[in-house]
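Entry 0007
Protein: DUF2384 domain-containing protein
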Amino acid sequence: MTRRSDTPHKWLPMPETVYPEKYHAVAVWRAAIGLFEGDRAAADRWLHQEVMGLGAKRPVDVMRADPQQVLDLIGRIEHGVHT
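Output (structure tokens):
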């Protein structure tokens, strides 16, 4: 039986360095789905509507330029911090 190492090999690039926009988009989608407790339809609706915490912009639009801003908002919502 072979064992999988927890540390990546030096010669294999990490996914976030090869395709950063896709890596971050997936992270935002997963966080949104988690915010809505697995309800993908609700997460999709939220990502495509204007949100006050993002200056009345749609999370799907903001995540293209700054995915961390959307992830931060999701974290604040999960912890009950009003923005």
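Curator remark: Residues 18-78 form one domain. The CA atoms of residues 2 and 31 lie 32 Å apart.
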